[in-house]
């Protein structure tokens, strides 16, 4: 049996001990403990639906969609930099199997109808450049983007760190391609897309960092994210797992009733 299977059995046995106060669970079914959570039908026969749900909530379930975390931020915003370096990146490093991260560098910037300077930023022109550099890096580097953005935002000088961070985490992407993106039409198109996403927020953002979970913003989740994003993501994922499991129970029950 694989280690994950052994762990599941151990957790299941511990759950039974806590829930029933006995040393060995004795469900009235014909399956060994290692198979109790193998399928919904077995869990129902062995009367361990609740215990299996708790066990499954502790490990990724490919049928359950990950928690979607979207961060609206500015490249030179001090609070954004703290959140990225102390909450977002460490949490993603540990929980990337159950969460996805979308970065939207724009924040409190303004889009202007000007060909020469189409954007103004809260922390001046350097931040506008930083936003565009990060937008281009996100576009060009794919899965390595969050590593690079974390590397930049946790550095003493965000802009100066851009090229070495890119070389460290995405050596196959040349700095010249990022520079061309920033100075060319692609960078402006990416920033316009970020502006559109930010303006479409409902409720509208009032500060940065602004974080949504599964497309929704609440003050309660924001407060939790600022203090422990790790625990919040685990909590939201367990809720999704519970909903998925109970939907299966309802479907299966309806099937047997019919």
From TrEMBL:
Domain Saposin A-type: 22-62
Keywords for the protein's UniProt record, in alphabetical order: Disulfide bond, Glycoprotein, Immunity, Lysosome, Oxidoreductase, Redox-active center, Secreted, Signal
Subcellular location: Secreted; Lysosome
Cleavable signal peptide: 1-21
One annotated GO molecular function: oxidoreductase activity, acting on a sulfur group of donors, disulfide as acceptor
Keyword Signal: yes
GO biological process, one term: immune system process
One cellular-component annotation, GO: lysosome
Alphabetized InterPro entries for the sequence: Interferon-induced_GILT, SAP_A
Primary site of residence: secreted
EC number: 1.8.-.-
Subunit annotation: Dimer; disulfide-linked.
UniProt-listed PANTHER family: GAMMA-INTERFERON INDUCIBLE LYSOSOMAL THIOL REDUCTASE GILT, GAMMA-INTERFERON-INDUCIBLE LYSOSOMAL THIOL REDUCTASE-LIKE
Function: Lysosomal thiol reductase that can reduce protein disulfide bonds. Facilitates the complete unfolding of proteins destined for lysosomal degradation. Plays an important role in antigen processing.
Family of the protein in this entry: Belongs to the GILT family.
Protein name in the entry: Gamma-interferon-inducible lysosomal thiol reductase
